[in-house]
Amino acid sequence: MDETCTICWFRNDLRLQDNPALTAAAAEGRVLPLYIHQHEQLARATGAAGRWWLHHALSNLNDALGRNLLISSGDPEAIILRLARLTGARSVVCNRVYDPEGVEQDKRIFEKLSNNGISVRTFNASLLQEPWLVLKPDGTPYRIFTPFYRNGYAGRKQSYTPLPVPPRLQTFSPEHESLPLERLGLLPDHPWHRKFTPIWQPGEEGAHKRLKEFVQHGLQGYSKGRDFPAEPHVSRLSPSLRFGEISPRQIWHALKNLPESEDRERFLTEIGWREFAYSLLFYNPSMPERPLQHKYSAFAWNDDMHALKLWQQGRTGYPLVDAGMRELWQTGYMHNRLRMITGSFLVKNLRIHWKHGRDWFHDCLLDADAANNNAGWQWVAGCGTDAAPYFRIFNPVTQAKRFDPAGTYTRRYIPELSRLPDRYLFEPWKAPPDILRDAGITPGVTYPEPIVDLQASRQAALQALKQLED
């Protein structure tokens, strides 16, 4: 076997363009593209919806690599050492990861490979700037987003020019070494994921198609329109960013080449929030288990699993909350405004621990990752370093009237309320009996009654906070 071959280990970077590890490998000669399935680690890092996406992302990547993606399962250290002996490869390249488990694993694996005479080179492919490059003047990490973004990203002129597909990419895979993709068991047993197929196009091509559509049809008006879930001002790029089918450098570059506008800058700020979440996780490895504001460890959470189930099923009796939860179940996605509203309802009106919400989102969101999911839930729970204060409680009725005034989004996902007049759509319990009858609604039967009183639950949450402060 040709000794100049290099093993390119794909992880959260399932693309050919702007892939620095792949570019480096191609410059050395023949490339053995490798993906390693680690069952237990993947289960912790990726929920059922995400595994559906991963299955199709790997299939698309394999096609792009001329069906030469070697798919393996097991211990990365043992697999890479065996492949190095088989192929004569003396070099491994990969792009860096930033989650605590991945960082520790890489240290162990890279040391073992080095001790066996195999060189390892790593690159940044997931972030505009890695966590250690955006620090306060005293060398400590930022804990507040605004100065993090202002000093690290805002106003920068560079467009982070992305890399092209390597011009001389020669891939190969040893015969009979690769597992069939289906052997990884990524597709969920429950058929609920089948409804994703007509909605999403996983893979690098699909990611760039969505970016183009967003720039052409969704960016103008984004700054204000992004808060209205019935409007088209969302990029829907988050699942592709999660699996590295497109890089933040590519998105930043595409937008920086557009005329400056409030819409453009607001969207770039969202890319900055993603960078901030990764920085928080990198410097706070306990973030998935502990609140970043440690005083919240003593908060008096409720242990109402029945209420949790009703929230998960979109049966709380509050139409906008239920619409958001049903969008999640039906599409593997939820509009960002609804993520805040449904999250606030769970942790503040129901006072159920944010980890339960985090775990449900982890399993149902196509774009869930440890950085964004944990940072988002700590933000909405008020226990993060740069969080919505706990006393900021989203009222789902007033939020609905403000951000879904025509009820378009709510009626889309709560069709049993579609015949209600706008006046009662977000508060069906206030509708007179004849209005409910004409709309085909039987309270508690065709649509649930509210599971909690908004004002009473708000006061209870604030009282629990006061006890924590005392």
TrEMBL record:
SUPFAM superfamilies: Cryptochrome/photolyase FAD-binding domain (SSF48173), Cryptochrome/photolyase, N-terminal domain (SSF52425). The keyword tRNA-binding does not apply. Keywords: Chromophore, FAD, Flavoprotein. Its cofactor is (6R)-5,10-methylene-5,6,7,8-tetrahydrofolate; FAD. It holds the Pfam family FAD_binding_7. The keyword Flavoprotein applies. Residues 4-128 form the Photolyase/cryptochrome alpha/beta domain. InterPro entries: Crypto/Photolyase_FAD-like_sf (IPR036134), Crypto/Photolyase_N_sf (IPR036155), Cryptochr/Photolyase_FAD-bd (IPR005101), Cryptochrome/DNA_photolyase_1 (IPR002081), DNA_photolyase_1_CS_C (IPR018394), DNA_photolyase_N (IPR006050), Rossmann-like_a/b/a_fold (IPR014729). Belongs to the DNA photolyase family. This is Deoxyribodipyrimidine photo-lyase. The lineage of its organism: Bacteria, Pseudomonadati, Chlorobiota, Chlorobiia, Chlorobiales.
